[in-house]
Design brief:
heterodimer; A: mainly alpha; ABC transporter involved in vitamin B12 uptake, BtuC; 80% helix; B: alpha/beta; Rossmann fold; four-stranded antiparallel beta sheet; 29% helix
Chain lengths: 265, 251
């Protein structure tokens, strides 16, 4: 089984997958605790628009996905925090609207349905060395921001008003968090796919929370769950020729069910 | 003699929400060491006033100074401890231990990447000790009773070593015995630790003997430096616009 690591495409898939597992589970903890889980799903759909535009105009789909996802994340946060719109309503509008736009672009082009499929469900074959560089640079930036403001983001998740009253720049950090999540989601679509990245962000923290620990151990457990699921999922993808995203999400679901069974309350 | 500015100085404060006037032309000062109750009918603007003082709402017009500094330029927010309304009602599944919650009170002091210093650890331990929650340190906040959660939230506010504590109707979901312990604690903090207190409450009877000032908020702010006089029933009835009775509790 370890022979798979001799193949460069599998090495790239593992490096990308492990990076994404850490980033997605770390940032996912904050959106889960803020009851904002649908944000990951919405931005994943928006990044599909970026991919479609990239494929249509011969630009880098990954960079276009990052751009589309970033712009949408700022608009969503602006409508939520400045205009006071309900977050679930804003997310629903962006989710369906971006999917509609992506479908229209795909229909107009009509020629890249096969490559779009890999962006929808993830493919271990599709991670190039260039993708790894993009992931490495943007992922490091996202990681640095998450670590730098980890405690502030935790405080905001616990009590936004008290954090603001304590002098923490809540609005700025909220925009930063959605930007980081937008980047992580756009980077993840090669491995996990746009339709499944939401699971990698949401399931690990939700499963970890079931163990009833403090925030720091919960976050570490969440990262461990994501890492194990990515390793097992990618291996299963290689061994049984499955779409990598689906295999990873099924592993996450197994862990989640185990967490439910172990921690019946 | 050292000059000691007002903790809060409010001049001609007006606040409108969606075209409706919530607070009009309010002017008052809170000085160091005061124990000030903020009372008034529901919807009168008590919580809005507190949110304005904390910078959580922006005034339509008027001026707020904190520790002598205009609010827009004020940066020492850790000098103000805040225990919000319904603070005892915490999501039961939130992954936060008592120690982590109290530690939040020090976050604003730590800066980017800032690790917990020895000062932070001492302040957190002292706040937990003072509030009697040290033995709950590793318990999840969601697993505590209402009274215990309330004490944790106050410990969090005290961990920043504030000069003033703002407490907004904190007794929702808290049993009567815990409420009495809470009032005793506020009195001790004010008298022995010289901590200034702003306390929003419906139940002014229980702290009638402790308070030095009274702010009556009903669209505008009426200040009394003689709370006993204002708490006389006929005066309260006139202010509330209904028949009011002051009930003094023994605690």
């Amino acid at each position: 089984m370890l022979e798979m690591l001799n193949y460069p495409f599998m090495q790239r898939a593992f490096v990308a997958g492990l990076m994404i597992a850490i980033l997605a589970s770390l940032s996912g903890s904050f959106i889960v605790l803020r009851r904002y889980s649908l944000l990951s799903e919405t931005l994943a759909h928006v990044s599909l628009v970026g991919v479609a535009i990239g494929l249509l105009f011969g630009m880098s789909p990954l960079w276009m996905a990052v751009l589309a996802s970033l712009v949408a994340s700022w608009l969503i946060e602006y409508l939520r925090s400045v205009h006071g719109m309900y977050s679930d309503s804003v997310l629903a509008i962006f989710l369906s609207g971006s999917l509609a736009l992506a479908i229209v672009i795909v229909s107009l082009a009509g020629s890249f349905n096969a490559s779009l499929f890999s962006y929808l469900f993830g493919s271990i074959l599709s991670v190039s060395t260039q993708d790894l560089w993009v992931m490495g640079i943007a992922g490091s930036l996202a990681m640095a921001l998450l670590i730098a403001f980890f405690k502030e983001l935790y405080f905001i998740a616990f009590d936004e008003d008290v954090a603001r009253a304590g002098g923490i720049r809540v609005t700025l950090l909220n925009f930063m968090l959605v930007s980081v999540i937008a980047i992580i989601i756009a980077l993840s679509i090669r491995v996990v796919g746009t339709l499944l990245i939401g699971a990698l962000m949401v399931i690990p923290p939700v499963a970890a929370i079931r163990f009833g620990m403090g925030f720091y151990p919960t976050t570490l457990l969440s990262m461990a769950i994501a890492l194990i699921s990515v390793v097992v999922g990618l291996s299963a993808s290689y061994l049984f020729s499955l779409p990598s995203g689906a295999a990873i999400v099924l592993c996450l679901l197994v862990v989640f069910i185990l967490a439910l069974v172990i921690n019946r309350r | 003699m050292k000059f000691s500015p007002s903790l809060f100085e409010v001049n001609n404060l007006n606040f409108e929400r969606q075209g409706n006037l919530v607070l009009k032309n309010s002017t008052f000062k809170i000085l160091p060491g005061e124990y000030c109750a903020i009372i008034g009918p529901n919807g009168g603007g008590k919580t809005t006033l507190v949110r304005l003082l904390l910078g959580l709402e922006k005034p339509t017009s008027g001026e707020i100074k904190l520790f002598g500094t205009p609010q827009k330029r004020f940066r020492d927010w850790n000098r103000i401890g805040y225990v919000p309304q319904r603070s005892a009602l915490v999501d039961s599944s939130f992954p936060a231990t008592v120690r982590e919650v109290v530690g939040m009170g020090r976050y604003a002091r730590r800066g980017i990447f800032g690790l917990e210093s020895a000062d932070d650890k001492t302040a957190i331990s002292e706040a937990m000790e003072l509030m009697g929650v040290s033995d709950l340190s590793d318990r999840l906040i969601g697993n505590l009773s209402g009274g215990q959660r309330q004490r944790v939230m106050i410990a969090r506010a005290l961990a920043s070593n504030p000069d003033v504590l703002i407490v907004d109707e904190p007794n929702t979901g808290v049993d009567v015995e815990s409420q009495h312990r809470f009032y005793e604690l506020l009195r001790t903090l004010n008298r022995t630790k010289k901590l200034s207190i702003l306390f929003v409450t419906h139940d002014v009877g229980v702290i009638a003997e402790d308070i030095t000032h009274l702010l009556f908020v009903n669209q505008s702010v009426l200040v009394s430096q003689n709370p006993a006089e204002m708490l006389r029933c006929d005066e309260m009835s006139r202010l509330y616009g209904t028949s009011a009775h002051l009930v003094s509790h023994n605690h």
